[in-house]
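EI: anyone free to look at a 247-residue chain?
SC: sure, send it
EI:
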Amino acid sequence: MDKKQKKIVLALGLVAALVLVLVVAGLGYRKLSSLYAERQNSGTETVSVSTEPSDSSESSDSSKPSDSSDSSQTAEPSGGEESQESSESSETTESSEEPELSEPVDVAQNIAPDFKMLNMDGEEVRLSDFWGKPIVLNFWATWCGPCKMEMPYIDEAYQQYGDDVVFLLVNLTDGSRDTVESATAFVEKEGYSFPIYFDVEYDGVYTYGINAIPTTYFIDENGVLYDTQIGSMTHNMLNQKIEELLN
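SC: here you go
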């Protein structure tokens, strides 16, 4: 092999090595970009919500208020065909009266829609009961990973702003995946100091059109919707929104 051929072989070798380096570098860049995108998206992760709460007769939640319509559905009337037809007619009427899921509430609608829930003492309260102070309204569940991610930040914010801001952490208490007892036990185990509330009839879910959690609404002292956040929040995001609400 003469010198000219050796130079050609050497040049081809250098080109092949350069191509290999570029391929490896490209693969590494794609991997780093993917990891970066995942970390950027972690602050807005959500979990889909089923809008069909479990039958209250299957729930062990002793704090859930009884509903006369539920009892008429679960009761088994005795008698002949007339009783059965009457029962079927009653069930058909009741099923047609189930609330339909609303569209997600937009801040452009101004006043925050009112709804009812239970507090930790089993008492029925309404969102409007808390008008007079800014409100952080958060819908969550114990089975929601993104909800758990932001809860330490919410607890810190509650300890910092709790005298000036009302924190309403409303659990999606469907009587199956979450009950009053299981949600309360979760908060106590984690050592969180904020109070929690229970949407045992999914009144809040239907009123606000909640189809993904966590979802948080920021409401001013007059009950006017100021901002909303769908997905988990970082510490800085939450504090910034609260500061804006207060100012």
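EI: Residues 34-43, 54-99 have pLDDT under 50 and may be disordered.
SC: 👍
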